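Work Package 3 (structural annotation) set out to generate three-dimensional models for the target panel prioritized at the project kickoff. During this period the team completed the workflow that converts sequence records into discrete structure tokens, so that structures can be stored uniformly alongside our sequence database. As a representative example, we reproduce one entry of 164 residues exactly as it appears in the project archive.
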Amino acid sequence: MSDLIASSEGPVEKIQMGSPITLHFALLMPSGEEIDTTRRSKPASLTMGDGNLLPGFEEALLGLAAGDDAQLIVPAQKAFGERVEANVRLLGRNMFDGLSSDEPLEPGLVVSFQAPDGELPGVVKAVYEDTVQVDFNHPLSGADITFDVSILSVAAPLADNAAE
């Protein structure tokens, strides 16, 4: 059953799992720095629960309706996760011998390592004589993210996607 609210213009569809939605959004760091946005281009269209948004961002949208504008704080653990110190590793400098000469081994360099389930990116934090410190945490981990949204449209959940 659809989740509707009344308005002067008739029933209004509220966002729920399985709802096709169109929205503009901006992701902001606690400092106000913009990480990503659709506001200067075409809006995003997706179906709630299709994997296009992290679950914490989907959860923040539930219950909103077309015409709603909101700035929602998504806590780190529901956004990109908490920082895990065990994900900062010291690796032998010889593991970086294959880098091209136009990529100097220095802090800030993003490197990818082959992992059993695909590639694992890491950010070089420090370079020592025999080792290199690499941070495998997501660059946005540990930060509460402001999810600034404008809901443009909400349709009734698709029958095969609706969560009961």
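Residues 27 and 147 are 5 Å apart (CA to CA).
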